[in-house]
């Protein structure tokens, strides 16, 4: 925090705030902060520090006020944003306003989307994604085609927080963005919107998104969906990405990646993901899918759950070689579930049951 470089000092302040090391942060700035009592009382001390002559202290105050989330501090923060001359402080005030989530400050943040340095504009866009008001949505839609790749990516990511279908058209357009990072952010946001919209809008919205994604036939879309499946921490995200992957597999450049990813999900602990993987493979169809599914049945690398789901999918896409292999599987397996799935698949393929 005493480094000669301003950006290093600012980064240290941010890091201490993110780790909620507020006491250490304020000691480093030679300040004392109430460590007991009501949260609003602590917040008052930081509001006073917004008027400090030291930029680092004003940064720290803004950061901590965002962390405390006291609604009454939104007004002094908004006032500070309108009068503050230091770019680093303005950026952190914009960030804090988003964390407090007071809709009344939406207009001030929207004003920051234009004519400000990039770091302030991005923090404002991130905060508007937290507020999710109609005015916030309009503001973000005004910058999804910004000249700055970083700004487009932030705006697109923030649009995924809205529980409405309104941002979908703009996000689908960004699937054709020149930046791979923006395209991937658009995929993530579309998945989030699918998870957030009311159930009565879900079916129609799914079909719209799938149709528009399929028309793009962009490898980055498949890559992004697979990334969500492999690395996503939210179950609803992984489920939606799995469901979508089989329906937007695209041309031969991307199809094999999708097939391989879905095959590896057949044994997932989550029943819906496993089911979506099987139906997704059936949606893709063709000899490549049949061969991939037969590998699950014929090798020893997959568990019983995966084999059972592979048998189920083969009933939808298989031919004579699948029927013959499934008939052998009925005799070989010790699993009742595998045998049941294999019997069902054989009947669909015209074999004897």
Description:
It is a single chain. This protein has 353 residues and is mostly helical. 71% of the residues lie in helices and 0% in strands. The protein contains 21 helices and no strands. It has helices at residues 6-18, 22-28, 39-49, 55-68, 74-83, 87-100, 106-111, 118-131, 134-141, 149-159, 168-174, 180-196, 199-216, 219-231, 235-245, 252-263, 271-284, 287-298, 304-317, 320-332, 336-348. The termini are far apart. The mean pLDDT is 89. Pfam families: HEAT_2. Keywords: Lyase. This is Phycocyanin alpha phycocyanobilin lyase-like. GO terms for molecular function: lyase activity; oxidoreductase activity.
Provide a concise account of the structure shown.
The protein is mainly α. Helix content is about 70%, strand content about 0%. The chain is built from 21 helices and no strands.
Examine the coordinates and then state which fold CATH places here, giving the name of the CATH topology of the domain at 10-131: Leucine-rich Repeat Variant
Gyration radius, rounded: 26 Å
Q: What is the succession of H and E elements? A: HHHHHHHHHHHHHHHHHHHHH
Quote the average pLDDT.
89
Question: Would you identify the CATH H-level superfamily of the domain at 10-131?
Answer: Leucine-rich Repeat Variant
- Specify the number of helices: 21
């Amino acid at each position: 925090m005493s480094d000669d470089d301003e950006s290093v000092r600012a980064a240290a302040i941010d890091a201490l705030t993110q780790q909620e090391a507020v006491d250490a942060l304020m000691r480093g700035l030679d300040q004392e902060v109430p460590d007991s009592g009501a949260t609003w009382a602590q917040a008052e001390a930081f509001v006073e520090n917004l008027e400090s002559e030291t930029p680092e202290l004003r940064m720290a105050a803004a950061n901590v006020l965002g962390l405390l989330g006291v609604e009454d501090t939104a007004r002094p923060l908004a006032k500070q944003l309108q009068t503050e001359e230091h770019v680093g402080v303005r950026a952190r005030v914009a960030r804090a306003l988003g964390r407090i989530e007071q809709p009344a400050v939406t207009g001030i943040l929207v004003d920051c989307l234009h004519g400000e340095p990039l770091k302030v504009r991005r923090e404002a866009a991130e905060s508007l994604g937290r507020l999710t008001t109609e005015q916030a949505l309009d503001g973000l839609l005004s910058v999804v085609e910004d000249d700055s790749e970083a700004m487009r990516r932030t705006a697109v990511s923030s649009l995924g927080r809205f529980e409405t279908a309104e941002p979908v058209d703009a996000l689908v357009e960004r699937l054709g963005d020149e930046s791979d990072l923006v395209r991937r952010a658009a995929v993530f946001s579309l998945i989030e919107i699918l998870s957030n919209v009311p159930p009565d809008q879900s079916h129609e919205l799914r079909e719209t998104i799938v149709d528009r994604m399929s028309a793009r036939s962009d490898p980055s879309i498949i890559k992004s969906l697979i990334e969500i499946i492999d690395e996503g921490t939210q179950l609803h995200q992984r489920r939606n990405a799995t469901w979508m992957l089989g329906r937007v597999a695209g041309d031969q450049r991307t199809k094999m990646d999708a097939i391989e990813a879905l095959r590896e999900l057949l044994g997932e602990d989550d029943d819906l993901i496993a089911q979506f993987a099987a139906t997704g493979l059936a949606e893709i169809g063709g000899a490549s899918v049949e061969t991939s599914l037969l590998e699950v049945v014929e090798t020893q690398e997959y568990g019983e759950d995966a084999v059972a789901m592979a048998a189920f999918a083969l009933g939808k896409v298989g031919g004579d070689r699948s029927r013959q292999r499934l008939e052998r599987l009925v005799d070989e397996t010790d699993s009742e579930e595998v045998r049941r799935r294999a019997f069902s698949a054989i009947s669909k393929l015209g074999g004897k049951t």
